[in-house]
Structure formats: structure tokens, C-alpha cells
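hiii, so i know i said id send this last week but things got crazy w the move. better late than never?? heres the sequnce for the chain we talked about at the cafe, plus the structure i predicted for it. fair warning i was half asleep when i ran it
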Amino acid sequence: MTFTVTMIPSNAKVDVDFVPVIEFTHPKWPAGSVRPLSDQLIKAKRTSWFIVPKPKSKTGDADHTLWRLAFHEQERELINDRGTLKPVCRLLKKLRDSCQLNIASYYLKTLFLWEIDANKAPDFWKMKQSHLFMHMLKILQQNLKRGEIKYYWDKHCNLIEGFQEKHKENLVCRLDNIIAHIERNVSESPIVIAEHILTKEEFEAFKKNCSTTFPSPSKPVAAVPNSATKEAVVHSPNLQGFRHKSDVPCSLCVDMSSKLDSIIIALTSVQSRVHTLEGRINVLCADIRSIRNQSQFKSAPRV
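okay and structure toks below
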């Protein structure tokens, strides 16, 4: 069942799907190869999980006995308070939409869940957004090249198992081109990242606003004569992950990292309206749950 919600005063319309689910609570937990509920999640009281009926396949065939597992509460807890994780995840989704890459949002979110497991150091998620963005973009590229994105709750399940080979090859090829284009041009023009995250119209508006702040890729870059300064600059850890050190124009190295992060922060603000809508939808869902849990309704007294 789908409801269309109109937001006031913007009159933006959002479709909200209502799906029947069955809720379970720990100590009940799926058997088999599903990862156990961690002490962290039990302590945080994130113990409810759901089974959701699977929709019809694209071919129209449906097995009405099939259900899928859903661990929304646990996933929210895992990604909560992880520094730059959420804004970078939103930027990856924006790049996906702008470049029309046909890959589900949940698959991108799953990559972050696995990365949380792989990087326990608390400072990892405090890295600059520009660095984390490129890191996760390459993680996505590597997973698609392997032809698998493992389901976080059961590593034996491949979320992209149903992808056709041509579709996977197309995604890999496009990501290869995007990453290569960014790394080839970012030292001369940091706004190259925005070129892929934004649509053409958004990028033109963004470039117009930033034209006096960021250099154009076509402008020649002056060399820094002081070799000692050059040596110190190109070994800066802030430049790692974008381009080979010897290829970085020295006059831009000093402030390139800060400019990249300024761009990422500006791009994040593009999503502000979406975030507002998400918050309103969450409030709406909370109200619906509250109504559902009421055992009876009392009529309003007559005036």
C-alpha cells in the first residue's frame, strides 16, 4: 500500500510504502549462518528484527511463502555516531543518481557496514570526507569487479547475484572512468569531484558560484622553485589516495586537501532538503506506530 504525502509549505510529494511485517525480539534470532546479535546491540536495546514478504520478481512470478530478513534497528545503531560515514554515504548515493548507476541504496549501505567491521580504529571515521569518499568509491569498484557484495548479516548471500554480467561490466567500466578522471584532474581542479556527484545543471550552478575560488583545469600551474618546499609538500599525508606524489602540481598541493573538503561540505548541503524530508517521514512513521499500538480509541468530547 502506497500513500503520497505532501510536505507543507514546499508542496513536495513523497511516496510512502506501507508493508506488513512480522516482528521478533531477542532472544529469538534467525538460525543458520546469520551473524549473532552482538553484545553492543543488546546493550543498546536494538533487539527487534523483522521478516518482510518478498515482492514479485520482475518476471511476474511470485512465491508467496518467501520472506526476507530485515535488521533496520541494528543497522541504524551500527552506523550511528560514525563521524563522516553518513554524509559520505549520501554523497555516494547522489553520485549514483547523477551518473544513473543502477545499484540499490542498500547495497551501498552494506559496503559501509562491512567497512565498520574492517576498521575498528575510532579515528578511521574521522578522516576527511574527501578521503573517505574516494576510499568508499574504490571499495564499491573492487566489489563489483569481484562480482559480489556480501549481505552483511549472512556472508553466504551475494546481494548482486542477480546482476547480469553485462550490467556488472558496465558499472565497473563507468566507475573506472570516474575514478581515473578524478585522480587525473583533481590536483589542477578540485571541483572535478563535483562534476560527477552533481547533475549537469547542478554542476554548472555550482561551478559558477565557485569560479572565483577554485582554479580552472585549463589554467597553467606555476612551479615552486624551492625544492625543499616541494619535497615537504608532496609527502603530505593529506594528498594520499588521489594521485601519484610526483605528478601533483606543487603550487596547489598546500591547499588542495582543504579545497576538496570545502567542496564535499558544499555538496553535502545539496542534500539538506532530502534530509528534512527523511526526518518528517520518520516522524510520520512514529505517529503511525503510536496509533497502531493503541488498544482503543476514544471519541472526542462534544463541545
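btw Residues 22 and 51 are 5 Å apart (CA to CA). thought thatd interest u
miss u guys!!
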